[in-house]
């Protein structure tokens, strides 16, 4: 569907005088405005019928009561148990594990590991993206330690990560659900070598493991007293609430970590109990489905108008595309509709000067999301922050309004959708609520699509081939192009 077939947004505002009040909401210290999207009363009504037909209320209840929501792996999704929802046994187990996690945080603060000035956090995917987002967003002026994150197997990434760390006073935190991930184990071994070559007497004594498979971590040389377990039902991209958040809890303090969980729990309650017409994650999913299915949009853009949230687009890329980038239903049948769009984005006015030409005048129509914070960072000039906010608001207005010109080069068609999310302030509680909003939006999309958002088999094939090649299995079964590349590289 081309843009010309979409109703004009200004006409929707004129036809629905209550549009702003119906499509803007506030919860958890966050204001959500979806009024500049093409959702109208008729389309929302149809999506509500679809949600009912797809069993959304029952699916949501399974999520919050520990039922099976990941049928391909016959699992519940227990990340919500980390925030106090789920089967009682899951909540109790998460609580007990969190108490053990706090004991380790307290021990580090009390000097059990000696003088600690830095943390090297090793993982990949959700094992890094979540903690890195938390520390970057909340720890710029509050972090008690020099925290560095390492995920890429590239040796240059390792060198960059350790360049500012003192091996004598650094803890190495290794996060891996299975403790079999090639990149993570390779980087862990490199960290051991770095510690040993620097003269650290007991490199293994500086390692902490975060995993759902503690036995596998022990096999890799980590003492069981320094292993924090999390549940099999906690997927990597949903894991920052679990022991995977240890680095953030150490750097930001335990109170901040608890506030993060409380903010997420507040959004959990909203998603579980709010009426469908005022349910933020569900309405956002309706807009997502509208633009993909009815307007033919293959991408969705998100721009963080706050440098502290610069990692949010990267975090959401994994959350949304790994969860809903599927082509079969929960029953394993081919889907007959598009599923997840490509999630992309950037930061503030930098993005305006790099990407917004296409958004305003290009032939690709992409719904845009602006995320901003009303209260400035303490270190930020208030006038700078004022201009930043005005730029965010102006972009949403101009995408919608456009500007007519007799000169086609200077003509802006307008009628391009956007949504705006405004946090009162960026703190642990509001960030927890924001991330939980995106999790539940992703889940709501999956239910509307009839797919499973909690498995991710698509990431495995390339890794399996790389592992076989690394083990010397040879590339005889590969195509001629790939074999030539391997031979040319001499690997």
**Spatial ordering of strands, largest sheet:** 1-2-11-10-8-9
Helix/strand/pairing class, anyone?
alpha/beta
Judging from the principal axes of the Cα atoms, what is the shape?
globular
Write down the secondary-structure element order.
Answer: HHEEHHHEHEHEHEHEHHHEHEHEHEHHH
Q: Number of folding domains?
A: 3
* Low-confidence blocks of residues: none
What's the main sheet like? 6 strands, mixed
Helix content: 40-55%
What is the β-strand count? 11
Could you tell me the mean pLDDT? 95
N→C terminal distance? 47 Å
Which strand-content bin applies to the residues? 5-15%
What is this structure, in a nutshell?
With 491 residues, the chain is of the alpha/beta class. The chain has helices at residues 9-15, 19-22, 41-53, 56-65, 88-109, 126-138, 155-162, 182-197, 214-219, 246-252, 254-273, 280-294, 312-324, 348-361, 382-401, 428-449, 460-470, 480-489, and strands at 24-27, 30-33, 118-122, 146-150, 170-175, 207-211, 227-229, 299-305, 342-347, 368-373, 418-423.
Key terms:
11 strands, Rossmann fold, five-stranded parallel β-sheet, alpha/beta, globular, single chain, 491 residues, 3 domains
């Amino acid at each position: 569907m081309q843009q010309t077939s979409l109703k004009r947004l200004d006409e929707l505002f004129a036809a629905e005088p209550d549009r702003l009040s119906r499509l803007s909401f506030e919860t958890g210290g966050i204001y959500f405005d979806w009024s500049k999207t093409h959702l109208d009363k008729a389309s929302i009504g149809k999506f509500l019928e679809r949600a009912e037909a797809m069993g959304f209320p029952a699916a949501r209840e399974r999520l919050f009561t520990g039922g099976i929501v990941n049928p391909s792996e016959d699992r519940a999704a227990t990340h919500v148990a980390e925030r106090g929802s789920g089967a009682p046994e899951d909540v109790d187990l998460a609580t007990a594990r969190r108490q053990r996690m706090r004991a380790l945080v307290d021990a580090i603060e009390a000097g059990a590991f000696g003088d600690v000035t830095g943390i090297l956090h090793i993982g990949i995917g959700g094992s890094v993206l979540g903690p890195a987002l938390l520390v970057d967003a909340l720890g710029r002026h509050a972090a008690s330690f020099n925290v560095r994150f390492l995920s890429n197997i590239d040796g240059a990434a390792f060198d960059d990560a350790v360049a500012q760390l003192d091996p004598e006073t650094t803890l190495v935190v290794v996060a891996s659900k299975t403790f079999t991930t090639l990149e993570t184990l390779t980087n862990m071994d490199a960290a051991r070598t770095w510690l040993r070559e620097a003269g650290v007497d007991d490199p293994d004594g500086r390692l902490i493991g975060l995993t759902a498979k503690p036995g596998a971590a022990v096999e890799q040389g980590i003492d069981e007293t320094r292993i924090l377990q999390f549940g099999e039902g906690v997927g990597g991209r949903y894991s920052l609430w679990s022991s995977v958040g240890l680095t953030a809890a150490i750097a930001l303090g335990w109170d901040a970590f608890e506030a993060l969980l409380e903010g997420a729990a507040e959004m959990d309650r909203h998603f579980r109990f709010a009426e469908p017409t005022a349910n933020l994650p569900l309405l956002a999913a309706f807009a997502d489905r509208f633009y993909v299915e009815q307007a033919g949009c293959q991408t969705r853009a998100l721009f963080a108008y706050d440098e502290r949230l610069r990692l949010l687009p990267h975090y959401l890329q994994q959350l949304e595309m790994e969860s809903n980038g599927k082509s079969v239903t929960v029953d394993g049948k081919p889907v007959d509709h598009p599923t997840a769009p490509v999630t992309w984005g950037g930061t503030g006015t930098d993005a305006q000067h790099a990407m917004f030409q296409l958004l305003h005048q290009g032939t690709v129509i992409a719904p845009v999301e602006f995320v901003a914070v009303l209260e400035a960072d303490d270190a930020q000039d208030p006038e700078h922050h004022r201009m930043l906010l005005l730029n965010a608001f102006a972009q949403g207005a101009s995408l919608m309004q456009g500007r007519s010109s007799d000169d086609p080069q200077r003509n802006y068609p307008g009628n391009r959708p956007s949504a705006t999310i405004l946090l009162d302030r960026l703190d642990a509680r509001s960030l927890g609520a924001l991330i939980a909003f995106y999790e539940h939006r992703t889940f709501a999309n999956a239910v509307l699509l009839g797919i499973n958002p909690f498995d991710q088999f698509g990431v495995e094939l390339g890794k399996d081939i790389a592992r076989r090649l690394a083990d010397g299995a040879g590339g005889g079964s590969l195509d001629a192009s790939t074999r030539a590349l391997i031979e040319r590289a001499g690997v």
